[in-house]
Amino acid sequence: MKELVGLCISCNKEIFCLDGFFNGVITKEKENYCFECYQKISKIEEKPQS
Ligand SMILES: [Zn+2]
Fold first, then answer.
1. Which residues pair with 15 in a beta bridge?
2. The pTM is what?
């Protein structure tokens, strides 16, 4: 089963729920991102604490 959840707000890629697996991320602000874009923003927003 493949269900369209929404579009990535960064690159407009379609985000699907595949057999219960969501191939993207929804933030606290209810913004949809694909994994690639979420990794980019999370690198910017969450700097590694080393
Ligand atoms: Zn994206």
1. 6
2. 0.72
Query: What single DSSP character describes residue 23?
Result: S
Q: Specify the DSSP class assigned to residue 46.
A: S
Dig out the tokens for 30 from the structure.
Answer: 């209810």
CA of 28 to the centre of ligand 1 (A): 17
In degrees, rounded to 5, the angle at the alpha carbon of residue 36 between the alpha carbons of residues 35 and 38 is: 60
What is the three-class DSSP state of 15? strand
The answer to whether 8 touches 18, Cβ cutoff 8 Å, is no
Query: Residue 2 Cα, ligand 1 centroid: separation in angstroms?
Result: 18
pLDDT single digits (tens) 11-27: 999 999 988 888 899 99
* Residue for token pair 């960064």: 10
Query: In which residue are the tokens 């985000």 written?
Result: 15
